[in-house]
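Researcher: Going back to the complex we discussed earlier. I've cleaned up the inputs and rechecked each line, so this should be the final set. Can you rerun the prediction on the complete assembly and write out the structure?
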Amino acid sequence: AQKVTQAQTEISVVEKEDVTLDCVYETRDTTYYLFWYKQPPSGELVFLIRRNSFDEQNEISGRYSWNFQKSTSSFNFTITASQVVDSAVYFCALRGYSGGYQKVTFGTGTKLQVIP
Amino acid sequence: EAQVTQNPRYLITVTGKKLTVTCSQNMNHEYMSWYRQDPGLGLRQIYYSMNVEVTDKGDVPEGYKVSRKEKRNFPLILESPSPNQTSLYFCASSLGYGQGSNQPQHFGDGTRLSIL
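Model: Rerun complete. Updated structure for the full complex:
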């Protein structure tokens, strides 16, 4: 069975602060894919970033960056210089790849509030 | 416009009355999936489909049925709904095989079901 843990239920930061959202996962699959999605108050789910299990290179995309560490099964997501529009619930997700079947497991989400 | 369309968006019904939530995508995606979102639990996968006539259980399949007779459609069926199935439901689609497995899912706008 696979599992995704987002231990931070809610985080509040003041605008322009950096914030890191934690994600820890468990899987027996050797190939898997990790994603971060954002759910703003309007309710839609928006894709942010992804990482393959075989690629541990960390990247920066605008104000977003991510730190994938296979050794600790973590896939943390950082927003630099947070803005009020970043206020949302953020979900980490794992897509396993086992025998051609691909189950997806989401974490319980982290609610981020950016205070002006 | 690439999209995943769910209908209805809102439904209030009574225990035991069969209902179907439709989901259609226009992106020729192989992979389709249904999730339910409940407070504090994040999104949980109900069923997914790797392609036409290929479906598998997610983490919370009890009380639900699905079918995939056409690539674009993936309806969710509640044959005898109960109050514990009151939730927000999302349909999603993505590419499914090979390198497509690392592609993010596109989500519908959600269907809010209330079972009285």
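Model: Worth noting: The mean pLDDT of chain A is 92.
Researcher: Good, that matches what I expected from the previous run.
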